[in-house]
Queue: 4 jobs
Job 1
Amino acid sequence: MDHYKILGVHKSASKEEIKQAFRKLAMEFHPDKHSQSPKSLKESATVKFKQLSEAYETLIDDRKRADYNLRRNAYGPNPNQSKRYDYHYGSGGGGHSYRDPYANRYSGSARRGGGGFVRFEMGLRYLTTKSFLLNASLFSILLGGMYIIDASGKALWKMQNTGKSFEETMESIEKAKASKDNSD
C-alpha cells in the first residue's frame, strides 16, 4: 500500500498538501457518510477510510514519514505488505481477517542474503533505541568507574609505599609470616 498514492499526493508534498488531500478524501469515504449505503459499498468505504487515516498518520509525522520513505526505498514500492488495516477477504466465510503483521516482513532478497542494507538498517535501529543507549551509557559509566578506582588504588599504593612494588611487598609479608611461624 503506497501512502502517497492513496492520498493522491507527490512524494515531495508539504504537510499542508497532505492535510488538504486527506480532508477531501476523508469527507468522501467517511463511514458515517455511507451509513445508508449498501453493505459492500459501506465496507469498501470503511477500508478506504482506514487506509487514508493510516497514510495521513504516517505522512503528517516527520519521523514516521522518514521511516516510511526509508522502508519504501529498501523494500521497493510496497513497504507495508502487512499493516494493521491490510485486509484480505476469505472465500469461505465472506468476512475479512487481519494478516499477520510480521509474516512477510523479511521476504525476498533479505532471506536470500541480498538484504544487506535491510540488515544494516535493522542493526542501526537497534543501536539507536533508547534502551540500548541507556544500557551502553550505564556500562560505560561502570567501566570508567572501575578504571578510576583501579588507577587511584595504584596511585595510593605508590604514594604510601615508595620504592616497593606490590609483588615485593607481598614477598616481604610472606617472609615475615614464615619467620614468625618458625619462631613459634
Job 2
Amino acid sequence: MGNVEKSCPVVKNILLLDSEGKRVAVKYYTDDWDILASKLAFEKSIFTKTQRSNALAEVEIGMFDGYIVVYKFISDLHFFVTGGENENDLILATVLQGFFDGVSTLLRNNVEKRTALENLDLILLCIDEMVDGGIVLETEPSLITGRVSMRGSDIEPLGEQTISQAFAMAREHLARSLLN
C-alpha cells in the first residue's frame, strides 16, 4: 500500500459544514485526526480561518495547519477537501469541484443546509463514489450522480422521479431479487 499512497493523490478528508461551522456531512480517510475532538478542532480551525473568504464564485486554495485545504461556499454550506502539504492542489480542487457539482445536481441546484440534510444519504453516497480510503476514484459529476441515482435498466433517472419513488422502486427491486 505504501507505493499506492506515493503514486496516487490522497485525500485526507471531505467536509461539508454549515454557515456556523457545524457538521453536515464529513468523511475522514487518514488517522491524522485520531479522535473526534481532534476532528472537531480541525473543522473549527479551518472554518474560522476561511470564514471571511470570498469563496463563492471559485474554488479557493489555502495552507492551514500543515495541510492543503481547498474550499468553496454556496448559500449556507461550506465545502472543503483536505490533502497533505505535498499533495497536488489542482487534483484536490478537481475533487472539490466534482463534489460541489455532484451535490448541486443531486439537490437539483437547491444547495442549502435544509435540503442537504433531507438528502444526506445521497451526499454520503456522492462522497463514497468519489473517494475510497483517501484514493480518488472519480471526479466527473455526471458519472458520480449517475451512480448515486441508481440509473439502471428498470430504474428511472433521479431527475425524473421523486426520492420517495426512488426508494419505493429500490425496495421493490430488492424484494424481487431476494425472492429469485
Job 3
Amino acid sequence: MLYKKGSEELERKEEEYRKDVEMNQQLKRTLKIRAMELGTVRKNLDQISLSHKKEKDLLHENSMLQEEIAMLRLELDTVKHQNQLKEKKYFEDIESVKEEHDNLLKAIKLNEEARTVFQYNGQLSILTTENKMLSSELKNVKHNKE
C-alpha cells in the first residue's frame, strides 16, 4: 500500500514535472518569439526614426526650395518689369526715329521742291533776259524800219 501510494505520488510528481517541462518549453518558445518580435519592433523603430529624420530633412529641403522659388519668382518679376520698361523705351525710340524719318522725308521733299523752284527761277531768269533781248532787238528792228 505504501508502494502503491509512493508510485502514485511519483506518477503525480512525474506528471507535474512533465507539465512543468512542457510549460517551460512553451515559455522558452514564447520568449524566443517575443525576443524576435522585440528585434523586429526595434528594427522598425530604427527605420521609423530614420524615416522621421529623412522626413525632417526633406521638409527642411522643401522649405529651402520654396524660399529659392520665391526668390526666383521675385527676380523673374523684376526682370519682366525691367524688360517692360526697356520695351516701352524701345517703342518710344522707334516712334521718335519714325518721326525723325518722316521729318527727313519732308525736308528732302522740300529740298527737291526748292531745287526745282531754283531751277525754274534760273530758267525764268534766262527766259526773261532772252525776252528782254528779243524785245530790244524787236524795238531796234522796228526803229530801223521806221
Job 4
Amino acid sequence: MGTPAKGVLLTGPPGIGKTTLVMRVLESLRASKPNLKVQGFYTHGNYQLLMASGNHIGEIRQGTERVGFEVVTLDGRRESLASTSVSAGTARWPSVGKYKVDVASFEFLALPELEVREGTELFIIDEVGRMELFSSSFFPAVLEVLKTNIPILATIPIPKFGRDIPEVARLRNHPGAEVYTLNSSNRDNIREQISTQLLNMLNIR
C-alpha cells in the first residue's frame, strides 16, 4: 500500500469468530499496554433455549436459537441491535432477514463511542455491517474516526453473492486499511500477528 496501515479490518463468513478474535486481540494489547485507552463497541448474538415438555420431570433443553443481537460497549453497557420479536413498536423497523433492527437503541449506545476523546489510543468497531448501516449517522462517524491518527480494529462482512455493501467496500479499499480474511484454519493463529501490527501502530503515534 502507498500509505502506512492505520487500521486492521477482519472479515470472514458469519460465525467464523471475528468478534472472538477482536476480544482476544484486545486482551493481548492490554497485557502489553495495561493503560491502553480504547473506545468502541462489539456486537454479539442473543440466544434462547429451545425447550420441550412432555413428562413430569419438566422442561429439557433441546438446543438454542438466536433471537437477536446486542451492541455492547467496552465498559459493558449494552443495548438491543436487532430482534426476531415483532410487535406494534417494531413493525416498521428495517429488516435484515428475520431480524428487526433497533436503529435508535444502536445509535444511542454506539455513536457516542465513535466521538474522539482526549487520550484515546485505539478504536474498536465490531462491526460495520448491514444492520449498523441502517443508521444514517453511523458511517459518517466511522469516516470521522478514519480522519484521525488513531488506529482502528474493525470487522466487516464478506461480500454476499460477490457484491459488497458500498460503505464496506469503501473501508476495504481505504489506503490505510490492512484486511485479514478469517477461516477455520487461520483464526486461531492470527491473533499474534494482528496484535503485533496494532502495537506497532500504537508505538509510532
